[in-house]
Design a protein that fits this description.
The structure is a homohexamer of 286-residue chains. Chain A is extended and about 70 Å long. In chain A, a hairpin with a 6-residue loop joins strand 3 (247-248) and strand 4 (255-260). Chain A is built from 8 helices and 4 strands, in the order βααααααααβββ. Helices cover 42% and strands 5% of the residues of chain A. Chain A has a 3-stranded mixed β-sheet with strand order 2-4-3, with no helix packed on it. With 286 residues, chain A is mainly alpha-helical. The D-F interface holds D 164-165, 167-168, 171, 234, 276-278 and F 164-165, 167-168, 171, 234, 276-278.
Chain lengths: 286, 286, 286, 286, 286, 286
Amino acid sequence: MFYHDKRLQYPVKVDNPDPQFARMLQQAIGGIEGEIRVCMQYLFQAWGARAPSNKYRDMLLHTATEEMGHIEMLATAVALNLEKAPTSLQEEGAADEVVGAVMGDESPRHVIEGMLHRHILSTGLAAYPANSDGVPFDMSHIYASGNIAADMYCNVAAESTGRVLATRLYNAAHDDGMKDMLHFMIARDTMHQEQWLAVIEELGGYEGTLPIPNSFPQEKEDQKNNYNFYATDVNGEEPPKGRWTEGKSLDGKGEFTVFQNKPMGEEPKLGPARPDSGAEKQQMSK
Amino acid sequence: MFYHDKRLQYPVKVDNPDPQFARMLQQAIGGIEGEIRVCMQYLFQAWGARAPSNKYRDMLLHTATEEMGHIEMLATAVALNLEKAPTSLQEEGAADEVVGAVMGDESPRHVIEGMLHRHILSTGLAAYPANSDGVPFDMSHIYASGNIAADMYCNVAAESTGRVLATRLYNAAHDDGMKDMLHFMIARDTMHQEQWLAVIEELGGYEGTLPIPNSFPQEKEDQKNNYNFYATDVNGEEPPKGRWTEGKSLDGKGEFTVFQNKPMGEEPKLGPARPDSGAEKQQMSK
Amino acid sequence: MFYHDKRLQYPVKVDNPDPQFARMLQQAIGGIEGEIRVCMQYLFQAWGARAPSNKYRDMLLHTATEEMGHIEMLATAVALNLEKAPTSLQEEGAADEVVGAVMGDESPRHVIEGMLHRHILSTGLAAYPANSDGVPFDMSHIYASGNIAADMYCNVAAESTGRVLATRLYNAAHDDGMKDMLHFMIARDTMHQEQWLAVIEELGGYEGTLPIPNSFPQEKEDQKNNYNFYATDVNGEEPPKGRWTEGKSLDGKGEFTVFQNKPMGEEPKLGPARPDSGAEKQQMSK
Amino acid sequence: MFYHDKRLQYPVKVDNPDPQFARMLQQAIGGIEGEIRVCMQYLFQAWGARAPSNKYRDMLLHTATEEMGHIEMLATAVALNLEKAPTSLQEEGAADEVVGAVMGDESPRHVIEGMLHRHILSTGLAAYPANSDGVPFDMSHIYASGNIAADMYCNVAAESTGRVLATRLYNAAHDDGMKDMLHFMIARDTMHQEQWLAVIEELGGYEGTLPIPNSFPQEKEDQKNNYNFYATDVNGEEPPKGRWTEGKSLDGKGEFTVFQNKPMGEEPKLGPARPDSGAEKQQMSK
Amino acid sequence: MFYHDKRLQYPVKVDNPDPQFARMLQQAIGGIEGEIRVCMQYLFQAWGARAPSNKYRDMLLHTATEEMGHIEMLATAVALNLEKAPTSLQEEGAADEVVGAVMGDESPRHVIEGMLHRHILSTGLAAYPANSDGVPFDMSHIYASGNIAADMYCNVAAESTGRVLATRLYNAAHDDGMKDMLHFMIARDTMHQEQWLAVIEELGGYEGTLPIPNSFPQEKEDQKNNYNFYATDVNGEEPPKGRWTEGKSLDGKGEFTVFQNKPMGEEPKLGPARPDSGAEKQQMSK
Amino acid sequence: MFYHDKRLQYPVKVDNPDPQFARMLQQAIGGIEGEIRVCMQYLFQAWGARAPSNKYRDMLLHTATEEMGHIEMLATAVALNLEKAPTSLQEEGAADEVVGAVMGDESPRHVIEGMLHRHILSTGLAAYPANSDGVPFDMSHIYASGNIAADMYCNVAAESTGRVLATRLYNAAHDDGMKDMLHFMIARDTMHQEQWLAVIEELGGYEGTLPIPNSFPQEKEDQKNNYNFYATDVNGEEPPKGRWTEGKSLDGKGEFTVFQNKPMGEEPKLGPARPDSGAEKQQMSK
């Protein structure tokens, strides 16, 4: 179960509110690279963790709970960036006098053009769980496979795209408070990338975990097609050489080769449409 | 651009059609761990690849094109498994005499209970791009970040969950043809897991790629918070020790430590609701 | 604006309630081939109709309003089919004595296995706007393009897949009341298929409408590539001959030919990744 | 920010694992009436709370944090109910000997028929954030309007449908552990229904809050149409009498009456389609 | 069943077409606070209404039918606001001479920046069923629970957020015709808020309806946890006092108290991963 | 199975990169009228094709494979249009010197206002499978019904809305390279409209295919209601005359007439709510 502290994990300050930047921050809340995703992903991985011990379950709970606080920081940052946003398309500006100084010499209409419109219409100038183009977060992005190694790579993927996003936000930002908040979040993403990879190391690295799942008896897989790069260039041009085209495989269990792809199967032939199946008569056998 | 061959990449045979297994196979078509996802993900990564050379773009195109053929194999397998499926809830069975022998002594109604209903109602006994519970595939799952290392980990994640899925399907299957097809696909997933990790190795492994993105000057991130595990246990209980709680970080740029999480920020205080913003009067300053 | 009559457009009777058939009927309510789709599609086409006269707007409103009543009939049929559905997994059956006789000798658990679970858990034994696998209807399926000919073909598509669905439901049904309701709906779909095609005829048929949109000056399109079938077989095998490979085109404006597809463009070369764009250093120019 | 305790808020025990009940429980996790919804809704309402004081923000954080623990309980219950679920369609049952005794004399195939297939294929026998028909939770259901009264009614709606769901699950359950867990959750929903309504009372009840938003000057709304019930029966039949057809309005600001609906506007006439807008020529003015 | 009148329920006039306002209006069509939602919600509640009499079914049909006409008004308003919208990014403006005077001195490019792009690309300058950020309406927002009291609160929630939205649109608008249309819609929302609350009153108010569902024997719920506010502040700080922390509960059936939350359950311990379940070997028991 | 050629099907050149046009092009990639849709639709129709011969299967594969190359062209065009896009909201422009000349005298902030934000934040200046408002493509739009005639009309619908979109993009474009690419795509859409209609002709035109599905014995449908236009005008005003109100039906099997709609059914009366079904007591029979 959970507890909260009213205070934020890290300071969130905005000197120059910018509704356009509020929009950008939404990607870190409700985007596929964002914080709801990692928080919920780690929680569901923890809650479903099956293993002889609770070690990884515990670790996941620690970090999931940390991420909860990151969503909070970002939601707060969005609300602060919207504090002086215009709410009216009228030329004379909003009836509300707090607005006007915002965004230099931009007219209210111009500022609104770049905003998420639901920041004005649906939330009363606050964050909501959608991305920077307004698409709501969809929980199908919570990857929790029941396989610890697969899950760790899903987490590395999430934290890698997450830190890429955070640095892009940092580069786009002009406010010192926002840059400070983001430089903290970027650091946490660094740690989390390492953390999930460290689990892989602890499980024995490539040799101890690959191919995932390692519980499937590898002799049951097609031994002729598990370490060869399939080339599909129509002109038969050789693919670029790389670590994956020759040499021992990373798991030490095979040798990389190149295979020019070609059909091993036949042209499929389905049975004709059956009566009562809603097809046209012409699709049925005569 | 692309070409096709009418023949399948690998043989697809079904001796004992099973509409319930057709449903399961849908997960490998339209599930988040499935083949549409990897095909489209590699295509979009290729098409957006920015780099001094086209090497990785090329490699991605080879494998994306291979995956296209995997969707085809699975769609064919679904159609074949549906060949004798019942289409009627009537006790006497379908009007169509080809049905009846299917699934041992199951009544048509029982067989339909476990089927995806759109296999009967929407497709005329064929595959469609949805998962095994009927949820259509949603293209937000195409991860292509513009960062080669992040993308590779997204691909490892996809192929890891993909091979986990393929082995689960193998374990659930009872038909020799299906097991043969799957044992090929499992092998290809093995190769692809290795392939994307081999790119990471080629780029210099952890030291050469971490933290992702490595183009962000690391001195700009919060140096006090980038290699410490945050513990959030309310009782202050120490988290389990692991590779990520002590020792040199994987990228060789820091030292892992543990930090008992606590608020560094203040309780946030948003401005009161503004007139004209649709709030209740009680939310406005007096 | 709109009015209602409490009575149904056509009688809806269910003698033998069948919760499994209630599930199937959902496809005709909230499926992409269903009645919400056509109702809303015709409404939005009507409401956006731009033309010198209101003739097509009017016609669309008539039929959209008719479709509204079809959703109502189906929703009623779902509720009636659920009247005796079990609500408990307990072996002894539901506490409620009205249940029990339902579905012959099926145990409550068996009946529930084939049901949409939200029929029990979310609606209190009534319809909801989702398809037969429980996926909610998504309004992106409302096709209203602003082009009258394109819209008519979207409508033919909707009514064709709609009548295919209705006949599949008819074939699956065992209850006389349900067959009666469906034989009416199948008839209405017949009319609507014809109706939208009749608009095309009235606009001048293929010659008067194709290529859609006919307002784009056809001399601006690529005159070498507008009536030739592109063949992509990798072995250069000739495609099957058909009405579309030779002879005058349907609009009378061209001649069908076959073209063996080949690249006319170059390999694309994007600029390298820019600093500050979140890529890996290795993707940047040196 | 947040903390966690490894222990659950309330005991979760399952004596007789039932994979079918695991499916039902998913509705309380990822359904629109479920716990992710209320947790996230209260969090976003708290994080965006604008008011002279932080009182309601604080209250919302307390309850949101409580709900977090409810998701955890349910996810645990799902995993426990799946402990002995079959994973294979083979007649002889799963290779795994722990299975077999589950669900009385049901064959593995029968048990699987009623299961969410992703419980087998995607999660390794654990919960995921989707509803009981497998549809992932979509964050557009997080209602946080920036208006405290509107939000409270959204919360009452959530807790009412939530408690309806919880009692339906209770009625469907056969396991004492599950009934115990649910009788706790039902109790919490009782409190939460009251809690949000108590905020309305504290704000002055109907008179103090209606019409929502009360900050909009009511003299600006159409005074002739704000307290009359519009009747749309095509036969002009009088609507049923009720508290809303006569007497003083609940907010004390008007008098309920009945109005037979009729058009006050004209038939709309849009401009013809413009050149370059992609319409057919026939839609343009001549 | 249903009928239509070509004329609008209320006049819709636009003197100064504004494509940016057209975008805003989309929220009232396809947003979660919009008119499709209430129309469809009331229809499905009506169609599934189970009760000794049809009284509430009838009332719901009246109002659902009214709402249908509101969608029509808004769709008309969107089309009229788009009448002079630019369709080209070329500096010289659109080829079409009707454009140009629109939006004062804005260049076509500037106007397009703030528009929904599908207004240009997909609809030919007309409305579509999506919100103001272009997200299509998703029918999972149709709340119809089968419980009359829960449904009424869902309706109050819809009409409260709906009137909040309508007043925000009113405040953002600059056109007299639009303000007139909205002042009518705001009035209708006032009535509908009252109407659904009046049903609650008629059912006996808080005492007659709470806790929802009142048909569940309250003695079966956890009597120790149904009227106490759970506090989760990690520092044990007392929550703010409110109507919900002390005094008689609103339904008169309990007494509000405060409870400092703490775990009553144990740390959960799931069984280890099973063979054949797709986990890593390390997750299995030894 | 499939092969690729590194070169593009047709040249893609961009002289004046325009991030706003990149956004527009997304509609042709991930919009419902776009190329992913047709590619996948033709593939799934091919893969599920049931008929005595493989003729239509083959044809569909040719064209599906062609469409794959169209997605590639568009994705390339998007990336090229984003080459000089700004990535920072700072007034002084991006740190990156390649930017600045873009879009004439627009400030970076202005350019960003009209951009899809995920082009900056999620993809590193490349395409992704979403529409021009950022909504990801959803595979429920893949229409493959198992009925060849229905499918052909679905394809005509797709290519009609597709060519409408392509001409709108052509009209909006200002870059010669983009106009050249689009004039090719417009031509291909012309061919594909004809191609699918030619299949209908080959199957016997209206008489040979209607009503779809023609395998359902037409005598089973309601012979009194299959060729009459239902009028729903509340004032009984006669609907506009058209090809569909009189004369022989297009399939030659009936005669068009007009029918003034009226209820043929009764007011529905559902059973009262059952105990244990989660309703209010007031909904149950006494």
